[in-house]
Design a protein that fits this description.
about 130 residues, globular, 4-stranded mixed β-sheet, NUDIX_hydrolase-like_dom_sf, alpha+beta
Length: about 130
């Protein structure tokens, strides 16, 4: 473990999440610790996630707008995408991308899930 980040309140689930930043010396298996909270764990190269071609603004029919990524066949949005975005910005790893490119949240992704309504709009002042 490198560090823990400040806790984040996720309104849609009334949960408080403590993000943990970690690094492995060598690749090792990862697994789901709590199936009630996490469907699966994926390892995706950071270079692929942060490639500007794979970044966009996600839109949801209820008005949610936030950063999104599509990599390794995954559509990453909401809390996970916001966390990846913040880490990229804070770590100096963000590459210029076009926040005006939008993609709607696919029905297959949003089924049964409400969006996280934190302000993750691409027009943030710290961009």
């Amino acid at each position: 473990m490198i560090t823990t980040l400040p806790q984040v309140h996720v309104p849609v689930s009334s949960s408080v999440v403590t993000p943990v930043l970690a690094w492995w010396h060598a690749p090792s298996p990862v697994r789901v610790n709590s199936p009630a909270e996490v469907a699966r764990v994926e390892q995706v190269p950071l270079t692929e996630l942060l490639d500007p071609v794979n970044r966009f603004t996600v839109t949801h029919r209820v008005g949610y707008r936030g950063v999104g990524f599509e990599a390794s066949g995954l559509f990453v949005w909401g809390f996970t995408a916001a966390l990846i975005d913040r880490l990229a910005v804070l770590g100096g790893l963000e590459r210029p991308w076009d926040p005006h490119v939008t993609r709607p949240l696919p029905d297959r992704v949003s089924a049964g899930r409400a969006p996280m309504m934190l302000d993750q709009s691409p027009e943030r002042e710290d961009r």
